[in-house]
Specification:
Layout: H1 10-17, E1 39-42, E2 45-49, E3 55-59, E4 65-69, E5 76-78, E6 136-138, E7 150-152, H2 158-164, H3 172-175, H4 177-189, H5 203-216, H6 225-234, E8 240-244, H7 247-251, H8 262-266, H9 276-283, H10 288-294, E9 306-310, E10 322-326, E11 331-335, E12 341-346, E13 348-349, E14 359-368, E15 372-374, E16 389-391, E17 402-406, E18 412-414, E19 431-432, H11 435-442, E20 450-454
Helix pairs in contact: 4-6
Organism: Ahrensia marina
GO molecular function: peptidoglycan L,D-transpeptidase activity; transferase activity
Active site: 414, 430
């Protein structure tokens, strides 16, 4: 590397580098110790090595620095006659500007604008925008570091996903629970059961609306408030009515609780209601919590108390010729001899572990308030129970208050102790309805009526 000449004020440099120099040729005959380096004696010339390893050569008489040598790079700065109008206070490298000053244009750099590295070790990087037709390889979503990555095609944008969400046809069903409850009551009166009346827009309401459209082509999904009121008045009056609790409603008998274990159930005198409120809710096809919500602070155990209830109307009494148990729709539909749809009920039909029958069977017998025989050798196994058990009758029994035995042994259409879960849970292969729907159906069928299971 070519040498560069510097004229530098020695006093300033000595302050900056904390050198201790000798000032005469006599002293230069000795080897002197410096705090951060060594002085090498030469006649009239002093040489020092500072704490950074740089070799400083200076004139002992004038105290002028002759040159500075940096051993790491081999760069050498050699002094030349100085400009007396300038005072340089420290050695400067012309290739690099001092800290805080702009760099010379020839060596200019652009600081990269990196985002801070996230602390989450599972974060790799933010994905780049991709073309719609491109595929992306994503890390496997498991703990196996050697798993093969998944290759996925283009995914829909947020806008597409939002647009794909199926919304109810009538927005009133989402933000007006009273409107929804009134619609449920209307459907119940028309024989298109929505299950429990609870003021909620759920799958059972949509099933009932679809069944009504199948029955007579009517679409009630876009009714206005006024139109709904008119429909209600033409089918039995206002949606809600009042009822005075009677002594019979509060006298029971009730049980404190229904055990889950079948062996414990078999020891009870009956599978009765657990409270007057439960009995009243079932009487008016209502969810217990919704009945309580309509009557805040009411004591349902006090005879003579007037409560607000759903005005559901009378049971339908038309002779049924055949029944469809639709597994996919989770619905039971009953038809007369002319093929007219009479009633439709939400249903729980079998499960993966214990599927319901296939094909066509017939109703063999009808039992109201039946007991239930549990036989793990031919049915399912409940808990640790390995013996045959007889569970007493009652609305909270395993088959509710109705049993319609089918020609396929051990299978039937029956009620339930938990009406709010109809169409939303599994059964042990049978067809499960609410108790009130099962009771209505039992009044319309007879032995020999066909039941076709639709996949």
């Amino acid at each position: 590397m070519s040498a560069r000449l510097l004229y530098i004020s020695t006093r300033s440099v000595l302050c900056a580098y904390t050198f201790a120099f000798v000032a005469s040729s006599a002293i230069a005959q000795q080897s002197s110790r410096f705090p951060n380096g060594q002085a090498i004696p030469l006649a009239g010339i002093g040489i020092a090595i500072d704490q950074d390893g740089r070799k400083i050569t200076y004139d002992l008489e004038t105290e002028e620095i002759i040159r500075i040598e940096v051993p790491e790079t081999g760069e050498i700065f050699t002094s030349t006659p100085a400009d007396p109008s300038q005072t340089i206070t420290a050695p400067q490298r012309v290739e690099r500007a001092p800290l805080g000053d702009p760099a010379p244009s020839d060596f200019a750099t652009v600081e990269p604008e990196f985002e801070p590295v996230p602390e989450d070790p599972n974060f790799d990087r933010r994905p780049l925008p991709s073309d719609e037709n491109m595929q992306a390889v994503v890390p496997p979503m498991n703990d196996d570091p050697f798993a093969e990555p998944q290759t996925i095609g283009p995914q829909p944008s947020d806008e597409t996903q939002t647009a794909a969400i199926i919304k109810p046809d009538n927005p009133n069903l989402d933000d007006k629970p009273e409107f929804t409850a009134k619609l449920q009551i209307l459907l119940d009166r028309l024989g298109m059961s929505p299950g429990v009346i609870d003021g909620r827009n759920g799958s059972n309401v949509r099933k009932a609306l679809n069944a009504l459209s199948l029955k007579n082509g009517r679409d009630l999904t876009s009714l206005s408030d006024g139109e709904l009121e008119a429909e209600l008045m033409s089918t039995g009056g206002p949606a809600f009515s009042t009822y005075t609790i009677t002594p019979e409603d509060t006298s029971g008998p009730f049980v404190s609780a229904i055990p889950a274990d079948y062996a414990e159930k078999s020891k009870m005198p009956a599978m009765s209601y657990t409270s007057a409120m439960e009995a009243l809710a079932e009487k008016f096809h209502m969810d217990e919590n919704y009945l309580k919500k309509l009557n805040p602070g009411v004591d349902f155990n006090r005879a003579g108390t007037t409560i607000k209830i759903a005005n559901t109307g009378e049971k339908i009494k038309v002779k049924v010729a055949r029944i469809e148990a639709d597994k996919g729709a989770e619905q039971v539909r009953a038809y007369d001899a002319q093929g007219n749809l009479i009633v439709a009920y939400p249903a729980t039909i079998g499960s993966t572990a214990t599927p319901s029958p296939s094909g066509t069977v017939t109703i063999e017998r009808i039992a109201l308030d039946p007991n239930y025989t549990y036989n793990p050798k031919i049915n399912f196994t409940q808990g640790d129970n390995k013996e045959v058990l007889t569970i007493p009758p009652g609305p909270n029994g395993p088959v509710g208050s109705v049993w319609l035995a089918l020609s396929k042994p051990t299978y039937g259409i029956h009620g339930t102790p938990d009406p709010a879960r109809i169409g939303k849970s599994n059964s042990h292969g049978c067809v499960r309805l609410t108790n009130w729907d099962a009771q209505e159906l039992a009044g319309m069928v007879s032995k020999g009526v066909t039941v076709e299971f639709l996949e």
